[in-house]
Design brief:
By secondary structure, the protein is an alpha/beta fold. 36% of the residues lie in helices and 21% in strands. Strand 6, helix 5 and strand 7 form a beta-alpha-beta unit.
């Protein structure tokens, strides 16, 4: 079955790197890649509610600049050399990024969104840019894969899946994680980070058994780590094992219940050096 991948781009180096990562990740899969760029005319401001008309000089200048940028972006991407079984579709719109993405996900039945973690105006020291965090928090129709700046694709050996076992798992939530692991013959390491008591209650034990049943014959293992911070524990685990990706279920409530005050993506967004797959 053909996979449909949406890649938002601002034509930055990081966006190009994320697109190259996606091509390598889906090297042996039949795919349709949709490259989306949203543009804003030079004097467009939301505060002044100035909306240029189609055909106006400002609108057409901004659109032309975007079209040239997309053309160069695709030319550079094709030099990567792994697009023989891939279809490229380019989309340029005057719109808000999240709005355009939601429309495309619904219209094209997108399977996955892949984006870089920093844009052209990224701030030093911040790994996850605002657009990436906003996308992971707001887009819930399909999984989101965020690729850190300059991260080079290597053969996937281990995917880390952090969980507190407090919620019942659904097979469809884990489908994409399992597919990627199978495609690359990678292991899934389930990680439980506990602040103090590492023992599980009856409900957590039942959910753990359910997760084991869902993963089935997939190469997987369970690990427990005691740490005051989920982010620090997860980062240390990934670094010590040289894991290749973190995947987590991005539920509507805060990750790990009310124990932590921030969603997981914001906690680890300043520390992670590997791609993050947000499942829904």
């Amino acid at each position: 079955m053909t996979k449909r991948i949406l890649i938002p781009t601002d034509f930055s180096k990081n966006a190009l790197n994320a697109a190259r990562f996606a091509l390598d990740l889906y090297l042996n899969q039949q795919c349709e890649f949709y490259f989306l760029h949203v543009f804003y005319p030079r004097n467009f401001t939301t505060s002044k509610l100035f909306i240029p008309e189609v055909g106006s000089e400002e609108y057409e200048t901004a659109k032309s600049k975007a079209e040239n940028g997309m053309k160069k972006f695709i030319e550079m991407l094709k030099l990567h050399g792994s697009s023989s079984n891939k279809t490229f579709v380019t989309i340029i719109e005057f719109n808000y990024l999240s709005e355009s993405m939601k429309n495309l996900i619904a219209k094209k039945d997108i399977d996955l969104v892949v984006m870089g973690t920093q844009g052209a105006t990224s701030s030093k020291g911040i790994i996850f840019g605002s657009n990436t965090v906003l996308t992971i928090e707001k887009i819930r129709e399909c999984p989101i894969l965020a690729v850190p700046a300059d991260y080079q694709f290597t053969t996937l050996k281990e995917l880390v899946f952090p969980t507190d076992f407090k919620d019942v798992f659904k097979r469809k939530e884990l489908q994409y994680l399992m597919e990627i692991a199978k495609w690359h013959n990678a292991a899934v390491s389930v990680l439980h980070v506990s602040k103090k008591d590492a023992s599980l209650n009856t409900k957590q034990k039942d959910n753990k058994i359910l997760l084991q049943e869902i993963l089935g014959d997939l190469n997987h293992s369970f690990h427990t780590l005691t740490n005051n911070s989920v982010a620090e524990g997860l980062t240390a685990f990934v670094e010590s094992r040289k894991s290749d990706m973190i995947a987590f279920i991005n539920r509507k409530h805060f990750f790990f219940g009310s124990v932590f005050s921030k969603p997981l993506v914001k906690e680890i967004g300043y520390d992670t050096t590997v791609p993050i797959l947000a499942l829904h």
